[in-house]
Structures are given as structure tokens and as C-alpha cells.
Sequence to fold (1520 residues):
Amino acid sequence: MASMIPCHKKKHVTQVKTDFAYHHKHVVKQQHTERKSSSHSLSQVHGHATEAMAEPAYTIPLFRQRTAEETEEYQRVSNNVGKGLVVIQEELHRMRMATKAQVESLAIKKEVRDMMTKRVELLDDHHKMPDFLLALRPHTVWEKTPIKLFCTVEGHPRPIVKWYKGGVPVDPLSAPGKYKIESKYGVHSLIISRCVVSDTAEYSAVATNQHGTATSKAKVVVKRPGGTGESSHLGLVPHLTEIHHSKLEVTLLDQFPVSFGVEGTSIKLVCTMVVVPDLPNVPPLAQWYRDDHLLKPSKLAEMSVGGGAAVLSLPHLAKDDEGLYTLRIFTKDGTAEHSAYLFVSDAAPSVAGAPGAPMSVKAYDINSDYVLVAWKPPNTVNEAPITGYFVDRCESGHDTWVQCNDAPVKVCKYPVHGLSLGHSYHFRVRAVNSAGISRASRKSDKVTALDAVENERLQVVKIEGRHDIVIKEDELEGYVTVPGEPTDVHASEIFKSYVVLSWTPPRPRGRAPMWFAIEKCIAGTGAWQQIIAAVKPHSPRYPVFDLQDGQKYQFRVYSVNMYGSSEASAPSEPIQKLDRDGTELWVGVPSAPGQVVATRNTKSSVFVQWETPAHQKNLLGYYIDGRVAGSKDWFPCNHKPFRHNRFVVHGLIPGETYTFRVQAVNAFGLSEESQESSPLSVEPALGKGVEYATPSSPYGITMLNSDGSSITVAWRTPKHCGGSKVNAYYIDKRDADTLVWKEVNMSGVTDRVCTVDHLTDGTFYEFRIQAGNMAGVGLPSAPSAPMKCHAWTMHEPGPAYDLHFSEVRSHSLVLLWKAPLYTGASAVTGYLVDMAKKGSSEFVTLTHEAVSHRYLQVHDLHEGENYVFRVRAANASGVGKPSQLSDPVCAKALPGTKEIVAGVDEETGDIFLSFEACEICETSKFVWSKNYKPVGDCPRVTASTKGRTSRLTFTNPDKDDLGKYSAVVTDTDGVSSSHTLTEDALNTMLELSYNIRNPVVPLKHGLNYEVLEKGHVRFWVQAIKLSPSVSYRFIVNNKEVTSGEGHKISHDVATGIIQMTVDLFTRDNEGTYTVQIHDGKAKAQSSLVLVGDVFKAALKEAEFQRKEHIRKQGPHFSEYLSFTVAEDCTVMLVCKVANVKKETSFHWYKEDEEVVPETPPNVMSGAVALPLPLFSRKDHGVFKAVLSDDRGKDTSVYDISGQAFDDIINAIAHIAGASASDLVLQCTPEGIRLQCYMNYYTEEMRTAWKHKDSKIASSEKMRIGGTAEMAWMQICDPSDKEKGHYSIEISDGVSTYTKTFDLSGQAYTDAYEEYLRLKAAAFAEKNRGRVVGGLPDVVTIMEEKSLSLTCTVWGEPTPEVTWLKNEQEVTSNDHTKVVFEGGKFASLVINKVTPDDSGKYSINVRNKYGGEFVEITVSVYKHGEQIPEAKHARPAPAATTPVPAKTPTPTPKSPTPTPRHSVKSPTPASTPVPKSPTPTPKSPTPRSPAPKSPTPSRGVKSPTMSPTPRFMKSPTPPRK
Fold:
């Protein structure tokens, strides 16, 4: 254990060590440093850590005496105050002495009393007007200081004095707390508590009686110190900053109450005060304490004083903040203090069921690489027990937390080692249980890892008493290399999971850095084993883990440095880890506390005390738990261990009953729970201090009537009854001119109205009241205002009185009052009610007309606002004087307020009103009223009370009981409620009451029927509830039916069902069915008439079910035919079959014609389908599926027409619409086409094309059509009118799918140009020159025959025709003749052909739009030769005719076409035919030929489209 340094020396030693670390030489100091070392045993270390975690008692701290330092400071300040303070004191002293001299010179107390006595004797028969014996005096005062103006006045009858400021009456209510008017012993005074500059004015006191008026005036000047905005008129500016706090007078006003907070939130404790003098730069000295420990300003505790308030802000609450908070303010007369408890509950856990966070994390035994962290365990009430804790560390200035222990530690202490020398750390702790890990505790204060024994190695040499030389012990040891061995090896902490070793460092140790090595062995074996440390230990502390339970160990330590290792230290005593229930008293949890006793404290708190545990084991404190009587859940009363065995539990529900238990806490955890206390109802104690044992003083004494010889007065009940009911009032009276009180009644009166007789007419009287209860008579009230005894003769009524409130809510309340005793010249006809906000004189009349009743419900109040009321009575003569102002009332409902509930007793059927009070005490009573008149012992109702609930039961309710009922709980803070009983509500409750008194078996469902399988019919009725003893019977057509053949009758108590099943339902079963039920006293009957059409429907259903049962004996359809639509829009007719076998056959039919699908149906799969691809109107018809085998046959029919057809089309449209693509633009020679591709399209689908939101109808201009893959709309011969927004809408009957295209702007321009291009191309293709027909592909002819090649040509304009042979033009001569007749028929005639005429012949037909080549192969054979086989040339692919240019390209006269393929001739041509180097594309073939443009044959080539000519087959066989 490190040696401990006294706290008053520690600062100097630390400074010496720091300086030495920087200079490494002698350091000269002006402070004296002593060396002191001591060693502490294991128990001393443990006690030191436990003591630091202890807390003070839950008591209000006593006044602290001034210490010697405080006394010295006080004397210093008193002797050195500034000149300004002297001036103020002299001025105040002069004022006090002047006042005292005047009072003493006049001998007020004696002379006034004597003069009053003489005046009474002399002036009984002689009246005198008012006269001031002592007039007002002018005053000049400082701002924010009090002032008192007083005077003495005489007169008979006794004058009434009123005060004025600048001619305006002084109203104390206009500025509450500022003005106070007193009249005692003949001295009238006006006190202004805190003067401001605006109070500078002329004040006057006006005394009045029936004989005259007298006035006394005085000037008051309020000065402000110089430098604060106004000049000082005293000639000297006081040095306010040098005024000591002890010169201020401080009075605490609003004090902070017992408070409740939650972890992570913030709270402010505020205490308002009055400071005299209130100087802005000299606030009072305020100190805050928690559990009697002085708090210092920090981020976690922010303090401020000023503005008439002392505030403590706790911005980040933790359970460490829970405790008793005390505000102590130093005043002129000592200290002013206030204390209240702050409770801080656990925040919501991060995991449900996880424990609360630990608290009070502190670090002890701080060394260079070792710290002992200790904390306090949290309370576990309803959570699982804590199984351990995790300790985290964070280096100061960083945000990264590192977990120190791998496994949870079970004790609230943990040694953290491996720290870095000189580094600062914070620590926090998390608790663990079976549900999870708690929130982290508040982090500890910063601690710095330093060598604790470094200071002990310093010596101080004094030089001439002025300087100190600090010498390190190393420098006196000489040159030492290997250090000595450590000594005193022992265990300073022993727990189940670890042992902390401590030892004394060696001497000498040398100057080289030193560390330690540790060895262990099992006691008695001598087998030493080195303990491997992750970090070399430099401090004389080390925690050892991983020791076996039940084994005793010995330890020894070596000192090591760079030069070597020392000898081993002497072995320690045998050390054994102790279990949780070890034998030593300080190991393990404490025993359970003893008997717990709870006693009453206030209406929301209870005082709990208990016996301390028999075995405390270094107790940290106690946890107190509470539970509401009848509940199983406990709640924590405190959240931080409380040190003493008594505690005040706050925040309880008034009137509720609680039990309590206590657990003791130490570092090992929580003890077993104590026995529970006896149940206790939360109510105020009868004698909570002497102040409340007897009632407080009544107040509000007011005059109600006077007849010249008596005065009737009334008063208000005491605000505190003292814990028992007020049962008597005592009245005293006195003449306003005397000081002697006389008793009016010797025996107490119970009413708060009393008539005082035997008074003298014209005399002023004062009254005071005392209240009494079982504890005695309380203090008297303040004297009433003087009341003149003279007969009231005014015609208007007197004041109403006893204004009180009921049903106070956030925005409404009910005001009640009593009628005036003096009615005036005629009876009271009504009342006017006025209201004003508290402190305001501006009253608002709430009643436009006088109300006749004596209550008024006030609405539209502002929540939290305070109001006052007054009532004026009216009669035929007018409106009388207003009543005394009511007490201020705050528009806010009491916490937990409940309303009256109307109901019906489930057992007796009685109609009642019930009210549950949110708070109640022993003396409380429930007072019920109807229309705010007490019901009393009315025979129509009966009131009963049980606990906090009262019930008003109606005897025989009828319309006479309608009205507004209210309930008030006496001796509470206004617990009340009301309920209006309306006729509708009463009728509803009367009906329910009748049903309860004349019980019936409640039926959930009346008698009903259902048809079952096999055609059985079940009749059933269901009751809400049945008992096992229920009896019943079924009656059919007035005959009882019993269970037997053909009928089965049963019931089920669990479901409440009673049923009868008829096996064979026939026409004989038509009639009336009735069931009668008896269940205890309750009865029920239900009938069902089953005749006519209803019976026929039931019979038909029964027969159908019988047939269905028979049908299902063979192969049958379990699901009849229906349709589905696949993703590719293929319609499938589907059905499901059951009870089939391999031999079962299945056939499809449409309109009685069998349909054979491509895939045979497989009945064994249980499902069969018939696909209908490309569904359209062609699929209309009746489809039928037939299932049969040797057991029977079943048929299913599906008619695809009407709605069924529409449903299929809609299903197709749904899939097609979802798959529809965006609109695509496609240009054609006829116009512009918009296309929408989709999975499937048919014209039966509901599609609509729109142009600019207008529907398009198919016409010559706008053509609408489609294919199976798409829908299209074509604009023929488009113009600018067709520009705009186009859309297609595909509807499936539910949804509409829309695709759009904007055909305008550049899109229209491009499309229109493309259309013109295609149109021109089509026109050219249509009118170009071409061979219509007549030419063969191959001609074989015998020599000497004539060959005639004739064809029909066409073109517009008439084309030119050229014949070619072997690509050479043929001209007409005698042998060859070329003919072109009528622009239509072209011929080539060869007379007497010879073999030389064999070859490739071609015809070239063309005009300005283009042309065409047609080739013919001619073969000439000699007579007698075999006719060569004709070889046809393969036709070349068609080519598309390009769009001609605006200027047609002229046709060349001598084209040289090259055929792609050639047909061999019997006589080869002299010149071989070359092959075409490039293929030619096909030309599109129109579907139908135009009238004037015959369709050319395949193989025809146009010489204008490609240099490669095409072939054209002859439509006629070749000539021979």
C-alpha cells in the first residue's frame, strides 16, 4: 500500500515532484515540505474506499458554524469596508434613530392606550371628528429599500383611515407583495416593500368618521445610486462592490419542492427571495449542498444568483444527482436555508429487462499503472438479478472507450492495470443480467496515473528559513545499480475473481528505471511460477487473476532494472480466494434488514424506518421498494443507496394503500428483501408538527346584516384542518377604539355564520375567529375590518357570501354561493356574477340576466390562469352590494381527477352514480347534491362509500330523478365532479336494469339452419354463455322432438351452441321450429318459421347436397370449369378433378363437337386445361368437359358468351395493357402510323385512340386496326390539322393503361418528310416500266424454226423497249424483227433460227420512273438431236425500287446486265457469261395488284436499280 500524504501537504509535494521532473537537480522552494510515510493494512484500504462511497443521513442539515477562516475573512471585510457602505449605514442609522426618538418621545404604546381609554370615558356622550396626533413625515430613501409611513389619529367613533398616492387610492391587490396596510394599537401604517424611482410621490392618509374628515400628507423621494442612469442626490456614490454579503437581509419566498427527474433529462431547482437592499452588483452569497456536500459550479451543476432568485441547473441528470439538496444563503442574521429531495429514476433501458446503470464511479489507490475503480450497484426491482459488471476506460481528451475486463466482475470493485504513466483517464461501468447490458454509468472524474511513492523519496533542506532545497533520495544513496528486494508482500484486496497484491518498494532502489516481477506457488509446495504480465508493473500494486478456488497461494516479488534483478522478497502469508459467502464478516452481501414500519407523513408521502441488518458487512446503503395494495409489481422508492435506516417516500397517490420493503447494499450486491411493512393508507399525519395539530386561522370575515343592535358575520373555513375535522368556531369582538377582546360565545358554533347581539348602534366593531378540532383550538384570525353597527334600511339586498368552487377543470368551473341574509325591500329575484383575473380590478359580468339559482358554471377559462369572483344579489329595487371577493382559483384540474360514472349493478340491477376520488383523507366525506342542493336523507336515493369510491343508488328511478348530480369530497383540495342524468340515458339504464332483474339467457345468434353434406339440415342457436347445468328442448310444429332415429340433439358449453340435426329433410319437415332454454334463473326462447319459399329453398339445397354426395362417389369435378389467362395472353379453360383412376377418360367439347387438344389431358394430375390461343370472337360457344369411368360420369359446362366472354377479354386486356409498349411512329406511303406493341391484341379488347383528348373513330382519314402483336392507328394523307397529342387507352374494366405520343414539332416534320418520301417511292414503283408477262425463262427450239418472243409491257408514261442478245442490242432486219405495238405489246421474231441464234436474250423496259430487265435463254438444236434438258435459272432475290430523284435518271440505251445465274444451252454460247459479283435484294410484292399496274413475275429485274439484272420465270410453258 502506498503511503498516504496529508491533504494539506499534498499540493506542495506534487509541485516539488513536477519541478524535479523538469530540472533533474536541486530545486529551491519557498514552501516547507515534510515527509511522511505510512503503510496501511488490507482493512484500512477497504475502509478508506468504502468511507468515500458513504452518504449522509436524510435530514435537513443544521446551520454550519463559521470556521476560523470564515471568521477571519468576516473580520477582514468588516474592517475594510468602503466608504460607500459607511455612508449607507450612517443614513440608515440616522433614519432609525429619528423614528425611534419620535416614537419614544410620544410614548406611543403607553400614551395612545391611555388616550384611547380616556376618550372612551370622555367621549361616550361627546362625538369628535378625526384629528391626527402624529402626522406623516417626509422620507428620502435608496431604490429597492423598504419604507414605512405611519401616523396616529383620534376621533369618535373611531375613524377609518385610507391611503392615497398622488390623490389615487393605494390598492394592495394591484401589486401583490408591494404594499401592506396595517392598523394596530391605533397606529396606522403603509409599508412599501421595494421602492423604485416611480414611487416618488406625495402620500396622504385620510381619516374619516361620520363627523368629518382629516388628512395628513408627506413627500417620499426615492433615489437611485449614481452611475446607474440617474444622478445621486446624496452627494456621494457608495462603493457597492465592497458591501459584504452578511449585510444583506434575505427572505426566501417560493421554495423548490420535492422533485422528480429521469436520467438524461434536465431539471432546475429555483428558490425566489427578497433581498434588502437589492443591489445588482452585490448578489447574496448562496451555496448549494447535496447530502451536506458542497457543490461547485461545473458542467453538471450550473448555479446562478440574481433577479430575485437562486437557481441550480442540472443539465444532464444521472442517478448520482439523487439526494437531499440544500440552498444556504448568508444573511445579516445568519443563514437562510431550504432543503428538498431530488429523485432521479432510471432511463428506459436499451434492451427490455436490462438493469439500470451503476452510479458513483470513483477511482482509488492511484498508482503509475494501476487504479482501483469502485461503484455502487443499481436497484433491481422487477428486473433479473445482476450477474456482473463491465468496466470501461477512456483516455482524457478522447471519445473511444475500451473495455477493461473480458468477463463480468461480480463485485463493485475492479483493479485496472496496464495504465500509462502520466496519462489521465475516465472510467465508467455497465451492469449485466440475463436480459442484456445496462446503459453506461456517468463517467468518473479524471484521474492521472502517477507514482504515489515518488513524493516519499524527497527530502527538504532548510536554508536560513527562507528557501527550501529539495533533494531526491536517489542522490543520497550513492551509486546503486541492482535494486534491493521489496518487502511486506500482502493482499490488499481479496475477492472471488481476483486478488490485489501490495508491497513496499525497495531501499535503496537506484536511479535506473525499475519494475517488478511476481511469482506464485501453492502454499507448502515451494514450486514457484512466474506470473506473466502483459505490461511490466511499475507500481507496488498488481491484481492477480485465474487463481483456483479452494487453493492457498503464496507470492513473492523481485525488483528489476537494467542492471539485473534483486533477491526475492519474503513470501507472503498464504492467501486464499473467498467465495461470495465467505466466512469473514466483510465478505458477501449483508443480511436482510429487520422490521419495516411505515407511518403517515403528508398527503403524498410516507415515513419509512427499519431495523439495521444483523451483519452489515461494510454497508453502502439501502434501497426501498413500494407496492400498491393488491398489485404484484414493486416500484423503486429511491434509485441511489440511502445511508440511514429512515426515509421519506414521496410522490405517492393520496388515499392509496401501500406496503414497503427494504434491501441492504454493499460492494457485493443487494441483500435479501426484508419483510413487508403493514399496509398503510397515504394521508396527512394528524399532528405533523405543532403548526398543523390544531386548525389554522379562519379568514375572510365579512358582514352580512345589522339591525342596530347586532351584526351578523360570516367567515371562511381554515385552509388547514390539522388532520381532524373542524367542529367548533369561537368568536371574539372588540370596540374598534379599544384593544381588549371579549368572547362572544363560550361554547363553539358549528356554522360559519354568527349573529353577535348586544351591540351599540353607531359603534365600529372588530371581530376575530378561532377554529377548533379534536387537537384543540387554533390561532385566532386577523382582526376584521371595522364594522359599523347600524340598522340596514336600503331597499337592495345585502351581499351574498360563502363563495366556493366545485368541479375546477382546465377550462371551466362551478361557482356556488349562499343567499344574502338581508333581502332588502323585496325578495331576491336573481344574482349577477362578476369575474376578473387575479390582481386585476377589471371585472367582467358573466350573466347577462340575473340567474335565479345560486350556482353558475363558468366556461372558456384559460388553463393555469388565476381568477377571482364576486356575486351581487338583485331584487325589484335594484342590485345590491357585491359580495366579498372569492379566493383566487387556478383553472387547472387536480392530477388524477375522475368524473362521475352512471351505471347499472350487474348483480342487483340497481341504477347508480359512482365517483372515485383522486385523493382522500380520514376525515373526508362524500357530499352528493342534485342541482347543487344536498340530497341528504332523501328516500329516492341511497349513498354508500367504500374506500375512495362513493355510490349514489336510485331507489325507484323515474323522470323525477332527472337532473344534474354532483359529488364533493370534503377536507381535500377541491375533489369534485358532476353528471347530468338525461331521459335517454335513464331509459337505457332502466331497460338494462329490467334485463338484469328479469334475466334471460343472452343469445349471440337466434335459431337458424344450415344444410350440411349428404343433405342433412342442422338447426342451431348460440348463447353468449352457458353453464354446465343448462337444459333445453326443441319443439317442431308444437311437438317436442327428442334425440333419436332421424334427429340428433346436442350442445357445447364452451361455444354456447345448442343444435339439432335432421338426417333426411323432406316436405314433411315444413313448419315452425322452436328451442326453449333454461339456465339457472335465466330463460330464453327462439323460433324459426320454415314455410313457403324459405322452406322450398332449404329443401332444394338439401336435395342438391344429397345429389352432390352421390356424385362425389365416382369421378367428379372438385372445381368446375373456369378460365385463366397466361402471360402470353393464351386463354386456358381449367378444372380440377377428384376420385379418378387411370381408366378414367376425359373429353373436351365445343358446341357438342369434340375438341382434341395437342396434349392429351392427364386426369391423374388432378388438373386439366384446354388452351385457346389467339382468343377472339371466334371462340364464342359452349365448352363442355366430360369425366367418366365405370363408376360414373360427371360433366362441367362453361359458356363463353355474354359476361363470361367480357370477363375473358378484360383479363386479356389486363395483361396486354400491362405489357404495352410506348407508342412507336411508323411512316407508310399511305400516311403516318402510330403502333403500340403488346403481348396480344384483338379487336374485341376495349381500346380507344384519342387525339387531343378527343376520341378517334375509324374513318378514311383515320384508320384503326391491328395485328396479334400490335394495335395501330394510321393518319392517311396527313396535314397540319393532325398535329398534336395522341394516346391509346386499353381498359380491362377496372384499370386503364394509357400510352401517349406527341406528334408535333420536329417529330411531325420528320414524319411528314418520311411519308412524302415513301409516297413518291410507291408512286414510282407503281408507274415504272415493267414486263407484265408472256416470256419464258428458257426456250429450246429446233433449227430452221421461227422463234417469236412476245410479252406485255406496262408503264406510265409508255416505256421504251429494247431487246438485247448477249448484252448487245438487237436491231430489226430480215432475220430478226423487233415489234412494239400500241405501247403495250413487245415482240422479237427470229426467222429460221440457226445455232448462232442461241444465247442470252433480254428485254429492257423502262421509263422515267424506272424499268426492268427480263432474260431468256435460247437454245437451238439440230434436227435429229435429242432435245436438251432445260435447266432453269434460280430466280434472284427481289430488290426494292429506290425512291427516284426529282429529276428522273435517263435510262442508258445499251445496258450490259450480268445475270446472277444462267441456264445452260445445248449449244454453248460463243461468249461465256460472267457471274454477278453482288447479289440483288428482293423487291416487295404488293398484296393485290393495282388495276393499271399488273404484278410482275418473280425474277424480273429493273436495270435502273442495280447493275445486276434479275430473272423472271415465264408463266407459260416453253414452246417446242
Q: What stands out?
A: The chain has a mean pLDDT of 81. Residues 406 and 645 are 37 Å apart (CA to CA). The chain is about 10% helix and 40% strand.
